[in-house]
Amino acid sequence: MHNDGELFPWLESSWSQLEAYIKNDRIPQALMVTGKKGLGKQQLVHQFAKSLLCQQVTSECQACGQCQSCKLLIAQTHPDLCVVQPDEPGKNITINQIRKLISFLSLTSQYGTHRLIIIHDAEQMNNAAANSFLKCLEEPTERTTIILVSDNPHTLPATVISRCQKLKINSPKREHGKSWLQQQHLSGDSDLDTLLSLSQGAPLLAQQYANEQILTLRKSCFTAWLDIAESRVNPVSIAEQWLQLSDSMLLFWLTTWVTDTIKCYFHNNPVDCYNPDFTHHLQELAQRLELKRLFKYYDLLLRQKHNLSTQLNKQLIFEEILINWSQITRMK
User: Fold this and answer.
1) 10 Å Cβ neighbour count for 88?
2) Reduced to 3 states, what is the DSSP secondary structure of residue 165?
3) Contact at 8 Å (CB) between 38 and 204?
4) Phi/psi class of residue 109: alpha, beta or left (left: φ > 0; alpha: ψ in -120 to 50)?
5) Distance between CA atoms of 89 and 244, rounded to whole angstroms?
6) DSSP character for 223?
7) Residues 6+ apart with CB under 8 A from 311
8) Which terminal residue of the chain, N or C, has fewer Cβ atoms less than 10 Å from its own Cβ?
9) What count of other Cβ atoms lies within 10 Å of the Cβ of residue 269?
10) What fold characterizes domain 9-168?
11) Of the candidates 216, 221, 278, which has an alpha carbon nearest to the alpha carbon of residue 250?
């Protein structure tokens, strides 16, 4: 969806489902919208919100953009819309935020249409917040819709998930995602196949990676990882440098490098690789490393991915990852 309200092409079928809710006057009291990061979930949900709150919605269930309600939405001051999200990326949604939401629910609708609550990154609710929020789902108020938006809904309590209708946004087919990216005049890296592989088929995330020149940064990190394998650099010094980068992105890259190396162990030219541009280097690693050690290293990465969400020292986490890597690559 662009600023003018046009839907991204891969969201058309999802919008049809939301449109049917409006046309049939069967708006769910609780809706969970899920899908990978970079598919436009937030834009889709806000388009739905505009249509629900508009006072002169069109026959195609589009907001008119002219009524008082639409003008308030554009100004982000609509009294019947409450948006909840973490104060900072990666932070929790707290119980205080949910208490404010509950206070909002006690108020009367100002415009008599719908009241809407949108919770972005819903999986970031801490336990206290999730337990408090459950009461909102168990005791819904009239003409109120709660929409949860989540990249990782499986981390939410089952009691919350079971009370929501579901709308899952799927990635477009590779050729459709690639075609869309070709039309975007990307300002940075333009290896579209690699960008789509790294973004797991999510075009908006691939676009972001290109504009931020993520492939250049990734190549630098991959070179350092290979240098550790060849004992050319100190793993502790690399861990210190990597502290400045996104830890979740680094863990994802490391995991994909190991996954692709394991694929190269079984196939000379594996398909569906995350890193098609690194295949030659990963094939060389596969020829010299023991498969059993690769699997153990993969398990270590999964454990450390969990540890990144704890209070453990991140530099120590990456030191262990890279020292372990230097050890298994030294044993030829």
Assistant:
1) 7
2) strand
3) yes
4) beta
5) 16
6) H
7) none
8) C
9) 10
10) Rossmann fold (3.40.50)
11) 221
For the chain, state the CA radius of gyration. Answer: 23
Strand blocks (E) in the chain: 30-34, 81-84, 115-119, 144-150, 165-168
Measuring CA to CA, which residue among 175, 177, 269, 203 is closest to residue 39? 203
Structure-token pair, residue 104: 């909002």
Contact call for residues 46 and 18 (beta carbons, < 8 A): no
Do 192 and 166 contact (CB within 8 A), yes or no? no
Separation in Å, CA 17 to CA 23, 31, 44, 48, 102: 10, 12, 11, 10, 28
Residue type, 28: P
Per-residue b/e over 56-78, b at no fewer than 16 CB within 10 Å? ebeeebebeeebebbebbeeeeb
Confidence of residue 178 (pLDDT cuts 50, 70, 90): very high
CATH architecture of 213-330: Up-down Bundle (1.20)
- Give phi and psi for 144, each to the nearest 5: -120, 130
CA distances from 22 to 5, 59, 62, 120, 237 (A): 17, 10, 10, 22, 57
Q: Do residues 323 and 235 make contact, with C-beta atoms less than 8 angstroms apart?
A: yes
CA 102 – CA 227 distance, rounded (Å): 54
pLDDT per position as a tens digit, 93-142: 999 999 998 888 887 778 766 789 999 999 999 888 998 999 888 887 77
Q: Which residues contact 17 (CB under 8 A, 6 or more apart)?
A: 167
Report d(CA 162, CA 145) in Å as an integer: 16
Residue 120 Cα to chain centre, angstroms: 11
**Domain locations along the chain:** 9-168, 213-330
Angle subtended by helix axes 235-242 and 314-330, to nearest 10: 140
| pLDDT over threshold 60, residue 332 | no
